[in-house]
Amino acid sequence: MSDQHNCPQCGCEHIYQDGGLWVCPECAHEWNELSTSADTDAGDTGVIHDANGNVLADGDTITVTKDLKVKGSSLVVKSGTKVKNIKLVDGSDGHNIACKISGIGAMNLKSEFVKKS
Ligand SMILES: [Zn+2]
Questions:
Q1: Among 10, 43, 48, 65, which residue is least crowded by beta carbons within 10 Å?
Q2: Which residues surround ligand 1, an ion (CB under 5 A)?
Q3: What is the pLDDT of residues 86-114, one digit of tens each?
Q4: Strand locations in the chain (E)
């Protein structure tokens, strides 16, 4: 990481990462790295697209386009699985869709492996 990070509130350089959030010890400001980069990079509007380039929204029904292993288990979400009522999240690791899959439970998916139904 060559990016210089400063607290967007007070400019303090001694910030640290806690979970997915950056925390400033000076003013206790907490922020998300993604929204910080969105300030400087106008191209990132936070819109999430599916594998076909369609815009996804909270509450959409999507279909999984690829067999996906569930981290930390032997379960696999099969290609073609329908997932209702998705919720878009800030996935710093690319898992930007939160959902519940029957038989598996709550998990996060990558938008590149789903398509809008
Ligand atoms: Zn600060």
A1: 43
A2: 7, 9-10, 12, 24, 26-27, 29
A3: 999 987 788 999 999 988 999 999 999 99
A4: 16-18, 21-23, 30-32, 62-64, 68-69, 76-77, 82-83, 87-88, 97-101, 105-109, 114-116
